[in-house]
Amino acid sequence: MKPYVPDQLPITELDFQHLFALVADASAELARYDGLLLGIPNPAVMLSPLTTREAVLSSKIEGTQATVDDVLEYDAGLAGC
Q1: Dihedral pair phi/psi, residue 67, rounded to 5°
Q2: How many angstroms separate the CA atoms of 68 and 36, rounded?
Q3: Distance separating alpha carbons of residues 76 and 52, to the nearest angstrom
Q4: Arithmetic mean of pLDDT over the chain
């Protein structure tokens, strides 16, 4: 078996102008979402599903198999019932 040899850095084949345009678009969308959250009385209501989904995806990376239902049951105090 041959050892892995990574590519030389910096990568010269990247289209930085295209990437910067995508980053700018993403930044604008995040700013728009942040503005939306500032206008509602309880922004946690909108953030909660995103936080739950992120927790589930993170658990998969860590090797734990939790589902969105598992997290919601835990949050509701129904885990282990």
Answers
A1: -105, 170
A2: 25
A3: 13
A4: 83
Q: Please name which of 27, 78, 73, 72 lies closest in space to residue 53, comparing C-alpha atoms.
A: 72
pLDDT in tens, 21-40: 999 999 999 999 889 888 88
Opening angle at CA 7, ends 4 and 11, nearest 5: 160
Q: Which two tokens stand for residue 69?
A: 């239902």
Rounded Cα–Cα distance for residues 29 and 33 (Å)? 6
SS3 41: coil
| Gap between the Cα atoms of 75 and 56, Å rounded | 13
53, 72 contact by CB (below 8 A): no
pTM value?
Answer: 0.45
